[in-house]
Structures
1.
Amino acid sequence: MDQIGGDLRLVSLRKEFGDFVAVDNIDILIPKGSFFALLGPSGCGKTTTLRMVAGLELPTAGQILIGDHDIASLKPYNRPVNTVFQSYALFPHLDIYENVAFGLRRRGVKDVATQVEAMLSLVELDAFARRKPSQLSGGQQQRVALARALINRPEVLLLDEPLGALDLKLRRQMQLELKRIQTEVGITFVHVTHDQEEAMTMADTIAVMNQGKVEQLGSPMDLYENPKTTFVANFLGQSNLLTGEVMDRGDFVGVKVWGNHIKIPASRVATTNAKVWVGVRPEKIYISAESNHAHDHLGNQLIGTVLERSYIGVSTQFIVEIPGFLDDEKIMVFEQNVDASEVKAGDRVRISWDPSHTFALDAKQDAYAGDVLAEAE
Amino acid sequence: MTSKKWVPYLLLAPGALWLALFFLTPMFNLGATSLYDPSGSLETGYVMNGHVGNYVDALSEYWPQFLRSFTFAAIATVLALIIAYPLAYAIALKSGQWKNILLILVIAPFFTSFLLRTLAWTAILGDNSSFVHFLQNIHILPEGGRILATPFAVVMGLTYNFLPFMTLPLFTSLEKVDPRLIEAAGDLYSKPFNGFHRVVLPLSMPGVVAGTLLTFIPASGDYINAQLLGGIKDTTMIGNVIDRAFLERGAYPTAAALSFLLMAAIVILVASYVKRAGTDELV
């Protein structure tokens, strides 16, 4: 068991529950020592994937490799993998010390004291060794769960929605804490979450999952700046998606959006189809009075009317109606409150953005895929 | 609001009144009876002379029956635990949609009377029953050997009758065990049996303690099983002795002293058991 080591690779991994395909032949490479996130809405297959790596579910087909060893058929207790369970699953009848020592004792380690104490101090719980889990706060229990798994020095540490039960402030703090610990121990972390902020804060690489498949895999910045599907564009942050038709292709692709010309770098067009969704993030757009030509140099521009203006504190959010656009293609603009413009609701405005902040997706996809608010309706 | 102070007393009143009338008063009478001069009778009346000798006589004459009662009860408790634990485990953690049906089946025997069910066992264990013939045919039982009227039959009856009292508390405590704890134990290098031993068993101890008490206490004082399934010798339990002393021999002071001794013995046994099992920490 100890000689198993290296990158974690999922090869054509598949899991069916009856007729339902929970995980649909996914292929993922997770380099040793990296912090990897599986991100997606509930039911997308991310937890099932994690449980297959842990050995708690048997794959229908495919391989789970650590280095060159296929561990897919090994029992959980024979895998060099440990899990931080959702809502922790700490043993309520054992104190913190014994919870953390549990894995070492089961493997027959005689002298656990040094390692347990070192681990408790890594998670800053030295003073709580003899307390029972029920006497600890949520954040402290979370750290015990982490220590209980990490002490075994697994090749891969799996974290199943580890921060889901914590309040927002504590969650932010624990995100930084988890990242610090991962850097310190250098173990591969695979983190399952539905919270895009959590994934982006901590992970080196994110796989966005939807309906059992990997939609897109990349660094947080890559996914956010250059989404390849409408699902990713909507699930990570917010996007304006407009109906467009490709007119000419070159270094820049020219797209007509209801009579307006929009330019997009060829590398940011994810389809060869003529019908596309033209996407731009709300915070990439400058808004100014129609008579103000200060942003003309950016390249892409539309003229419209402000329908709504709401002050959020960190930004001001506008909804702009462009003549000739569909009803659900009103454009969202987020303006930082630094040199706030004087634009009010009802004003005629000029909105401008850089072509390199524009992306184009295949129009066959649902424009609302991954849009949490739209899907909840 | 001071007017709310009496609410707890009001809530306690029915129970307290009931126990005072039907538990404390008879207990007091029984205590007094146990100290009467044993030379009296119901017809001639009893003289109260604080005759502590009733206790000494009862114990010296009937200690074998005391010992037998606790032995039978202990064996029945252990057997019930061995049968009920896997049953409760399966219902609590493995039965899925069948859980409620299985639970009803556990309780189903209560729909018929205790007496009737024990009488049914006389047919099952009787000399001409197919069960006995089967045992004779495979030579576990010698030709002409009996099951009915043996200690074995009494212990089987006790085990059967108190099995639900063992199963239900075990089920309750096993059902509270989060299945993810079992997964976590496996994830932390416990093989299935080791995970059970280290996680499930300790967490189910409150159920084990409650179940063994609910089985052992009534089994120690039981007399129906010994009367219906037992024989003339080697099967008489202390409950039968008390029954006969009260109803057949009219030896009231002896019967009362025996009742008090039984109660005291059970209290002492249970108290030392609970102390060892450390329920304070477990429950």
2.
Amino acid sequence: MAVKIDDMYYAYSANDEIASKGEYGGVVTSILKFLLEKGFVDAVVAVEEAADLYDAKPVLITKPEDVIKSAGSIHCGTLNMAKFISKYLDGARDMKIAVTCKPCDAKTIRELMKKGKIIEDNVFMVGVNCGGTLSPIPTMKMIKNEYGLDPAKVVKEEISKGNLIMETEDGEEKGLSIENLEEEGMGRRPNCQRCDMKIPSNADLALGNWGVIGPLQGKATFVEVFSDKGADYLTEVINANIINVEEPLEKGIEIRDKVNTVMLKNSKKQEAADFEGTTGDIIEVFNEYREDLSRCMKCYGCREACPLCYCDDCCLETEGPEWVPGGYTPAAPFFHLTRMVHMVDACTNCGQCEEVCPSEIPVAKIFATVNNKVKNTFGYVSGIEDDTPIPFTQFPDRGNK
Amino acid sequence: MVEIEYVPTICPYCGVGCGLNFVVKDKKIVGVEPWKRHPVNEGKVCPKGNFGYEFINRDDRLKTPLIKENGEFREASWDEALDLVANKLKEVSDEDPNQVGFYACARSPNENIYITQKLARVACGTQNVDHCARICHGPTVAGLATTLGSGAMTNGFDSIEEADFIFCIGSNNMEAHPLFGRKIIRAKQNGAKLVVADPRYTPTAKLADVYLEFKTGTDVALLNGMMKLIIDEDLQDDEFIEKRTKGYEDLKKVVSNYDMDTVAEIAEIDKDKLIDITLDYAKADKAAIVYSLGITEHSHGADNVMCTANLAMLTGNIGRLGTGVNPLRGQNNVQGACDMGALPSDYAGYRKVADQETTDWINNYYGTNLPATPGLTLVEMMNAAHAGDLKVLYIHGEDPVLSDADITHTKECLANLEMLIVQELFMTDTAAVADVVLPAAGWGEQEGTFTNGERRVQVLRKAQDPPGDAMLDWKIMEEIAVRMGVPREKFHYESAEEIFDEIREVAPVFAGMNRERLERPEALHWPCPSEDDPCEPLMHKDKFAHPDGLGVFMPQEHKGPVETPDAEYPLLLTTTRILFHYHAAMTRRCKTLDNEVKTGFIEINTKDADKLNILDKEIVKASSRRGEIEIPARVTDDIKEGIVNIPMHFSECAANMLTNSDSMDPKSKMVELKACAIKVEKME
């Protein structure tokens, strides 16, 4: 059997242990394990549960038998895997890796590939659908206060039909309207609420449970193929009888599409609310958020967390001229302005900057507002593999050659 | 193939106790990444959290024991160094245990600190063990224990987010405790009103709804004035006073002399502002007091502390979320260092040395013959060395040459010892004047626990091996104890966890802390008397920690600083910490932090600078009756006229060359680090 781009399947692991530990048939785990076993990749980069369900850590797995540890999904896994690859794995310069990625991970990896910071040939992106992630501590507080449940007893969370559902070890299930929660400042991270990609079509494969109906509901994963590499590797996996695949039901494809469309529509609504009252002009945005920015304690956390801030020698630390004088807080407005000029065209709305900010500055929102203007002005959509030149890196070719 | 691992741990700088992940690449720490699951900081950290790991694998880490001969250090084997130290300690303590003294390390895990005090008490038979809390939050421990019955922060950090009104005095938490500062920001976003009283218009003051400028060292007058007004306006909480406190009549009498005009004159404040602040505090449903070293580092530090407790009790603002007296503890484990009994008056868990029954229990447990007489405090040990009464001082990871008042005096004291032993990571100013230097494992290289300012006991994890021959502190001390003749089984532990189990036996407030409970990111707050106790952070809910359950009003009269400005030394010097540095031995060795702030400075008001014809960044001479330094000026409107400030981290222009060690608080043995008279001059 030979898989092609745009193919779709219902898939489930042929290995019972993996099928039961992994969610929805354990397909992600099976693929990763196979690639590592057969030497298609040297290592797998995935997310593992650390202290508990709310604690996600990235792991570099080199032994096939360890892949199973990363099975299962973790909604509090608000990491950006691109940063891990570029900062600690030298952009996969000397190794072939497979990496599980949410859409924002995949987008950021794509941006870094364009800039030569991650080596495209060495990275296989196993995309997973994502309706949004939740920061651990606020989520635990929400579970306690809003759901009246003990966070330690929750074994699974799920977003379904507009509800955020918590399931406890005693089998108790409780759902609350995600819209209501988010109106009260809870729920998904603010950047997730306006995220414009739920199915990572920029990865090599995209997997998820949306659209799996009929007899395989809950037992299989919906797989869509987006690249030749994705098609080739999936062919290998299927032919080795590692996973079983079936044609998806027509109705299932429709449902998956509908889930995606509804979520994107809600994101559009949130985006409109977030960007309301500003043209996205950089000066205007800085003026609007002056009060917030004036709290900056210059921890450099946004720079450290930003996967697209990668200069070896950062001009925020140069001795002169002192645009951002050393040792003074709040940091001079130039701090954020400088960072913005460097990477706002590539910003993928991954939200890392805001999540680590100790001064409660809506950093991601500020950057997303300006990025939106870049997108509208130059037609450049960050994180997507196409031929549009990166606005602040290249001028468009006039075609005179 | 490269190996990468995330190892969760706790930050080693301030008392907030943020969690973070070490990134360990091929068994070496190469970075830190957010630990978003951590309940205190949720993955957010300050500059020190982000870059404070950079010192760990520096080449200048101490890797081998050093012995000084003819004024020069030479490398030595562990056997030689340990024998030398053990023999000297034995010889001198056999003669008289009061001739030896120990400084425990408030940066170190609880387990190391516990073993330090055990080495002092068990191997040397002395109660002379103390640590830098003495010159940090010693007044808090003394002042709050007297009034509330327990010397610790009354509420958890999160509690502040529920406050309606926050009165922050002498705490620049946006720099000194930044992730607590974040909770203040959140409290404000929840609608709380924030008032900051400080002689400096700090980054914290800049967040405030109301900023009250006042003169350094006049806190008692200011707080008494507030209490008088509250009583005059009949805004005190009569029911609370009646049911939960004693001594109210005394308080009323003392504060009655502090009318607003008097206070305005003493504290040089805007009277109307203070009236408004007072009425708002008294009328708020949930009002919290936040303070830090601005309150404690005075010759009347304990008085200041007691006044904050008086104010909270007067208005019933204690024992509920959103209220309380919230001292922000300085170092990462200074709370733990007090808890572990590195105090000359207390065994672990604040069991009193002076209580014969307790000392009998301890003597029975340790197999010792300790007297029920408290030993010398940190400052007293120095003075005893000066007088020749203390002959050997064992300093575990502290740097008093830089951080104690009056460096010249400190150096004289240390030079007068027969032997100074320093156990360290780096060649600090103090290690440089030692006779023996013992290289120890540092942060990231050992297991153990830190206790943060809200009494949360948090587990640390080892991420890499220590460099060279550096050893775990508690193993170094085991070897010394054994060489001094203590049976090994009394000092031998297989792990830090085993030490903690012993602590649970000695100190009942930790009894309920089993490993499984401690290992969760939430960890546990003390008091934790039993394994089924929820160990939550809020204290004094229904009763205070005194035996009769009542809080005690301890009214105080205003005394002011020991040394006040005069014609010769016309400026009042205060000392502070800055956001980018902490323990200089560590932060100044972090490339990014050093790059941010490379040296010290003296903050001086624009008008004072004009009078002296001093420009911003100009190197000036600052001098006091103790000494003089050369230091760049930072000319600013953000400090009160007549007051100057020097951050304490920088030895080349050390604030403590100028400060006054002859200014002891009788109640807490604090010295006045935050007020002395100096002059500033243009260089020749």
